[in-house]
Structure formats: C-alpha cells, structure tokens
Design brief:
The complex is a heterodimer of chains A (about 110) and B (about 110). With about 110 residues, chain A is mostly beta strands. Chain A has strands at about 5, 10-15, 20-25, 30-40, 40-50, 55, 65-70, 75-80, 85-95, 100, 105-110. Chain A contains no helices and 11 strands. Chain B has about 110 residues and is mainly beta. Chain B is built from no helices and 11 strands. In chain B, strands 2, 4, 5, 9, 10 and 11 form a 6-stranded mixed sheet that branches. Chain B is globular and about 45 Å long. The termini of chain B are far apart. Classes of the chains: A mainly beta (about 110), B mainly beta (about 110).
C-alpha cells in the first residue's frame, strides 16, 4: 500500500518565520504535489514536481517555494510565514496516470 | 479556466437510502475524473477514477458515471451506511495536462444517520 507521510500533523509558527513542511512517499512515484485546503475555497494546487529537481507552479505559488532533491521527498517552504498562510496543507503523489495518494495533512497556524 | 462545482454542498440522509452526488465541470476537454473521500481532519482517499473514454466505474456500493459532453459526473452510493459519512470531492484532470494536476470541486459533506 502506498504511504505518503507528512512530518507534522499540527504546526504553530510566528509571522515572519521560515517554515518547512516535509512530505515523503515510499512507492517511487515520480509525481508529487502540494495543495492547500481552505473552507469555501476547496483544494488549490501550490506546486507540483514530476521528477527530481523539477517543479511547476500551480494555481497559488506566491509566498511558497519547493525542493525536491530526492525522488521520495518533496518539501514546501514558506520563506516568511504570514497569517494568510494559515491552512491545511496536503501532500500527494502519483505514478503516471494512477490516482493520487494523499498524506493526512499538516494543519499550520501562523500567529 | 476549468471550474468544478459540486451540488449539494451538504446532504443528510437516513441509513439505507440510495443517494446521488453531483459534479459538474465547465471544460469538457478532460483526461479523466476522480472521486475522493475525505474524513474530518484527514487526507483524501481515492474512490474511483474514470477515464475520458469511459462512461462509468463501479467499486462495491459505489458507482460513478461520466457524461463528458454535458460536463457532468455523478457518484451513486447504494444502501448508505453511517460509515459513509464524510466529504466527497470530485476532481478533473485537463486533457492537455501531462502532469496529473487536478482541479477540485468544493465537495459534498455527507451525513448518514443511523
């Protein structure tokens, strides 16, 4: 069974801090994704990676960056956290056209 | 830009009822459509994936249909159970998109009462 693990379930950070959200998958999937989920706005794609060191912007990349140095790990970076980045962050992975597999999410609060 | 809408936003039914969840999308040039389930505070679990060339997919008590020309999909749940209570989301992958990026609907929050 595919496992997508997000390192933290809950995070509380202060405005201006640099924040790292980590995601690891164990099935050698080439595609990895970061979404954020907000009430009334649904899931929105932040960044996507289709291979090591490759990345594509999603619908809302502003204020975020990503890193994919190894195939199994995809990191989301908030360079300077702001309160409007308080959200549920969901990581996903997929192999080719197969369905996406999601992690359990990280609920980030920026105060 | 593709927009995905799910109606109703919330639904409450008694146990045992058959029910239909609706998903509509504005651009019919899709590669596939997926239905997901999300339990409170958790990630999404894939339920069914329908390729653009298919009309329906079935898994157990779930049946998803796709009418690409009208921009609609339905998820049919037979003999609903309290354990079916969750939020159900549909998502489409554009035909041009080689990277499996999805556009999601807002979800339907389902409550099945014992």
């Amino acid at each position: 069974d595919v496992k997508v693990t997000q390192s933290s379930r809950y995070l509380v950070k202060r405005t201006g801090e640099k924040v790292f959200l980590e995601c690891v998958q164990d099935m050698d999937h080439e595609n990895m994704f970061w979404y954020r989920q907000d009430p009334g706005l649904g899931l929105r794609l932040i960044y996507f990676s289709y291979d090591v060191k490759m990345k594509e912007k999603g619908d809302i990349p502003e204020g975020y960056s990503v890193s994919r140095e190894k195939k199994e790990r995809f990191s989301l970076i908030l360079e300077s956290a702001s309160t409007n980045q308080t959200s549920m962050y969901l990581c996903a992975s997929s192999l080719g056209d197969s369905p996406l597999h999601f992690g359990n999410g990280t609920r980030l609060t920026v105060t | 830009k593709q927009e995905v809408t799910q109606i109703p936003a919330a639904l409450s039914v008694p146990e045992g009822e058959n029910l239909v969840l609706n998903c509509s999308f504005t651009d019919s040039a899709i590669y596939n459509l997926q239905w997901f389930r999300q339990d409170p505070g958790k990630g999404l679990t894939s339920l069914l994936l329908i390729q653009s060339s298919q009309r329906e997919q079935t898994s157990g008590r779930l049946n998803a249909s796709l009418d690409k020309s009208s921009g609609r999909s339905t998820l049919y749940i037979a003999a609903s159970q309290p354990g079916d209570s969750a939020t159900y989301l549909c998502a489409v992958r554009p035909f041009w998109n080689a990277g499996n990026m999805l556009t999601f609907g807002g979800g339907t929050r389902l409550m099945v009462k014992p």
